[in-house]
């Protein structure tokens, strides 16, 4: 029997812990046997979380016998993990134990040095901070999970379910994983490379900067043609100077900014209107449905049709006028 140890630290996010607990605990072989033994372990017997106090019977020694260790996410107020926790994870990794994180649990793995030189993901809102704190980690903010073989990371809690189903399929085959997916009321077919559905936000621009007026003009004129020359003319700069200052202040090029603004407009319309894709393509400035589909997939990682199926009718994020 394969032992899965869920490492519960203070300020654990309850659903991040419950997702792998449920997935592995409900897995059954064709003859009805349980292939996984799931254990909760922690550094201390008492663990606090949002509105709950948890008592965990097993300590860090339980990690020594685990075949898989999963580190759930923690709240934003959490301090760094202790040296004992980090050393236990390093020891387990050195012994060949499979180690995975859910959501911002990736920060714990990164602090232990287990993600150095590897690709990793976390919730898209925390991806920038993960990359800033741990420059040796190749952060991929737009995927559901990353499998490096021994070390895996996943995005949000729902993506943690995807990652767990992936591990089950890797361990026991598609039939067992499909049954586990049905028990969790989850699709099995989502792959790790499918993008997180990220609200496409622009890099921040200081208020009152010389770019603010032209950025507002871009947002108001997305349906029309927006050229580098037109943007530069509105600031009174040459195209070369404008491009340089734009990149200095935003970290991206003017045309990339326009592309993301148009994708964001398309996202809003897909979520909040019944307009056909042809009309949305014109309203967002893509010109044709083919251009919309191509660029939308490049930025968001899925098709406009799939995005609308997932998000139509949900409250939209406010317009971004960074």
Q: Please list the strands of the largest sheet in the order they lie side by side.
A: 2-1-5-6-10-9
Number of strands: 10
| Sheet with most strands | 6 strands, mixed
Averaging pLDDT over every residue, what do you get?
84
**Rg, please?**
23 Å
Shape: elongated
Low-confidence stretches: 314-322
Question: End-to-end span in angstroms?
Answer: 53 Å
Q: Count of helices? A: 13
- Could you state the order of secondary-structure elements as H and E? EHEEEEHEHEHEEEHHHHHHHHH
- Percent in strands: 5-15%
What does this structure look like?
The protein has 322 residues and is α/β, with parallel strands linked by helices. The protein is 44% helix and 12% strand. It is built from 13 helices and 10 strands. The protein has a 6-stranded mixed sheet with strand order 2-1-5-6-10-9, sandwiched between helices. The chain has a two-stranded antiparallel ribbon with strand order 3-4. Helix 8 crosses helix 9 (239-250), helix 10 packs across helix 12 and helix 10 (254-272) crosses helix 13. The longest helix is centred in the last third of the chain and has 19 residues, at 254-272. The model is unreliable at 314-322 (pLDDT under 50).
Q: Main traits of this protein?
A:
single chain, 322 residues, alpha/beta, two-stranded antiparallel sheet, disordered C terminus
């Amino acid at each position: 029997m394969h032992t899965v140890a869920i490492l519960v630290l203070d300020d654990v996010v309850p659903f991040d812990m419950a997702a792998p607990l449920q997935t592995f605990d409900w897995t059954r072989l064709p003859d009805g046997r349980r292939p996984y033994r799931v254990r909760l372990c922690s550094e201390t017997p008492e663990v606090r979380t949002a509105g709950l106090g948890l008592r965990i019977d097993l300590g860090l020694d339980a990690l020594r016998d685990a075949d898989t260790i999963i580190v759930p996410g923690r709240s934003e107020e959490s301090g760094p993990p202790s040296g004992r926790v980090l050393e236990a994870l390093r020891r387990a990794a050195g012994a060949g134990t499979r180690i995975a994180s859910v959501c911002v649990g990736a920060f714990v793995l990164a602090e232990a040095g287990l993600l150095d030189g590897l690709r990793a993901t976390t919730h898209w809102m925390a991806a920038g901070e993960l990359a800033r704190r741990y420059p040796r980690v190749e952060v991929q903010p737009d995927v559901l999970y990353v499998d490096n073989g021994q070390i895996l990371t996943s995005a949000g809690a729902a993506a943690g379910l995807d990652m767990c189903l992936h591990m089950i399929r890797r361990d026991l085959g598609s039939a067992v994983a499909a049954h586990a997916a049905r028990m969790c009321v989850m699709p099995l077919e989502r792959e790790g490379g499918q993008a997180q559905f990220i609200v496409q936000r622009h890099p921040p621009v200081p208020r009152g900067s010389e770019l603010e007026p032209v950025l507002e003009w871009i947002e108001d004129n997305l349906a029309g043609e927006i050229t580098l020359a037109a943007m530069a003319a509105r600031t009174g700069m040459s195209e070369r100077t404008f491009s340089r200052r734009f990149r200095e202040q935003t970290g991206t090029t003017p045309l990339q900014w326009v592309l993301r603004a148009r994708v964001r407009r398309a996202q809003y319309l897909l979520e909040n209107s019944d307009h056909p894709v042809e009309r949305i393509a014109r309203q967002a400035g893509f010109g044709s449905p083919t251009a919309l589909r191509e660029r939308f997939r490049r930025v968001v990682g899925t098709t406009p049709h799939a995005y609308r199926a997932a998000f139509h009718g949900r409250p939209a994020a406010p317009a971004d006028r960074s």
